[in-house]
Every structure is written in C-alpha cells, then in structure tokens.
Sequence to fold (398 residues):
Amino acid sequence: TINVWCRSSLISQMTFMFNITEMVTPFLIQYINNSEKVPKMDHFIIPNFPVKDMEHWGLITYTKIIYDANQYPTNRKKEIAAIVTHEIAHQWFGNLVTPSWWSYLWLKEGLASFFHTYIIDKIFVDWRTMDFFVVDILHYCLRIDKGKLSPITFEFDNFKRLDLLSFIIYYKASTILRMLQNTITDEVFRKGLIIYLATHEYGSTTPDDLWNAMQTVLDKSDIPHGHYKIKQIMDTWTNQNSYPVVNVMKNYTTGEITIFQKCVCGQKSNNEWWIPITFATQSNPNFSDTAPRYLLQPNQNITFKIDPNDWIIVNIQQIDSSMVNLNISRYMTMMLTIVFSSEYGSTTPDDLWNAMQTALDKSDIPHGHYKIKQIMDTWTNQNSYPVVNVMKNYDRFF
Fold:
C-alpha cells in the first residue's frame, strides 16, 4: 500500500504528488521485474526537516512537495514528479542493492537520476522530459566538465568531498547510462538491470557487477558486439574525467568521412574513450535510429564514404556525452539546408539543438561569410523551450 502523510492543511495540495506515486511505482516494478520488498510505502512531508528529501526502507521523507495550480507554475509539476520518482527508484537502486563503497555512489544516484527522467518521459509523453534532459543536464555537463572534475568513479577520502562531487554523481552518471541504453538497446539494458537486482538483492555492488549483468544479456542477444565488452566501453567513461570532442572531416570531392577523437582538454590530457558513432545523411535522414554504426576506439580513426553532395549529422539525438566538431562554414550551410529541406520533419529536436550547441560553442566564429543572426533566424520557427534554453546559455555572443 502507498500512504502519504502531511499536515491536514496541506491535504488538498497533495493530490498530484499522490498520483505520481501510484503511477511511478507500478511502472518501475514492471520495468525491473522486481516487486517492492516492504509491505507498505509511506511518504512523509515534514516542513523544515534538516534533510531535504531522503529515501529509507518503506519511508520517504520530503520537506516541501506540494502543488497548487493557483500558486505554482506548471513546471512545478515536473519538479515534483522528478523528486518523487527519484526517491522511489532508490527503493531498488540504493536500498535493495547498495554500492559497496562511496567511490561507487553513482551506482545509486546515477541510476535514480536516469530513471526519474526515463520514467517521467514515458508517463507524461507531452512533457518531453528527455528533450529537457539533453539541454538541461547533458549540455550542462559539457559546459562544466572540462578536466577539473573527478571521474564518476572516484577515490573517496572524506565526506565533505561528496558535496563537491554531486554534479558528476547525479548528472554525468545519468548521461552515460542513457548512452549505454541506446548502445545496447533498451531491451538488453532492462534485462541487464533485472539480473543485476536479482543477483545482488540485499547486497552491495561495484560497477563491474552492473557491467557483468548487462554483458550476460548482451551475449545472448543478436546485437553484433564481437569486438567489444561493455566494461571495456564504460570504464573509459566512469574512470576518466572530462569528455571527448569527436572530429568529423569530410572530403567534399570523394565524400570520404574521417572521424577521430581528442579530449576537450586538448594536450593537457591523454584521455580517450570508446564512443558510439551514430549519424544521419541527406540520402538517409533517419534521426530515430540511435543504434551505433561504429564504435570509435581509443587510438583509432574511422573512415567511410557518403555521397559527396550529402550533409551529415553525427551523434544523433546527442546520445553520447561528446561534442562533435565540424568545419564551421560547411556546417552552417548544412544546418540551413536541413532546416529548410523536405527532410526537416524527420529531424528530431535533439539533433537540431546539438547542431546549434556545437556551432555556438565555437568562440572563434568567423563573421566574414555569415552573421550570428543567421543562426538565430534558423530557429525562428522553433517554439520549444529547450531551444530557447540553449540560446539563453549563449547570450554572451549578442
């Protein structure tokens, strides 16, 4: 049973929160095929409680989780849904299965953060929560994590350090889990979590336990993966800080594409990653297929050919946590071609925001062949908040 406890004066403002608990709990139980291990779940709202929101076995406490349509904007619903879903997810990721040490705290916080986005996106489709995730979380990670932060798996030395690491524990960890889900498919990801929870319930784990569970399912699937192991890929994302810049070079005569990587830190770092490479072209403008065409390995270049007259967009829906670097002049032409072409309808917002993000991230934008206003005009028909949010973060150009 699910119970919500609060002051009697707040009962009328708890309806939305209660509805969230009744939708999220059965969804998560079905997804991970693992029932609740407690006979009841109590949600307590305790004003001025020193700990903001906290999950316990069968008890979740909040300080303020009310919603009144006459007092709060609609966005408050999204905040409440995220908080409640995050804490419910901890009943499994954190309580049922616990990280073996603080160094692996992301195993519970990263998974809970991923699921509060994933589940809300499935329940409230119109909210487009995953679109917001890309610009609010993933793009934020790309702006902040440029070599000065610790890896997701870090050497733990004192509890004060945990506050400083909250960014990578919650945010960056959820972005790489989303990348893994799209790389191995949601079905393999889900079955891997089922094995992970069933194998280690009431126990403690390390990242290798999660990767082994995923690998077990992947090995039984029909997904080609003979040249890599999940641990091999994911260790490069969890044990290293910063992120890669994926450089895409096109020979406009032959149509040959060359892809290679460098750390965003430049020569200050030798970090390299296993990177899922997805792309769409003018001849094949499929922006919904996020299965990787290639895996870019450390110390490797990838080459392939497309029609010399085609545009190409790499990193569809910003699935991996990298920045794609293309020639700016050609890039602007490509963006304008896509937006005003007949294929525009099949382009997902994530791909367009990723394109805009990359273009605006260039601090040395040349002005001879176009104006910044052209970038803005490209998006005049866009009324989505995420687009506005991207532009807001780059007001330094204007």
Summary: The CA atoms of residues 3 and 42 lie 5 Å apart. Confidence is low (pLDDT under 50) at residues 363-373. Residues 244-396 form a domain with the Immunoglobulin-like fold (CATH 2.60.40.1910).
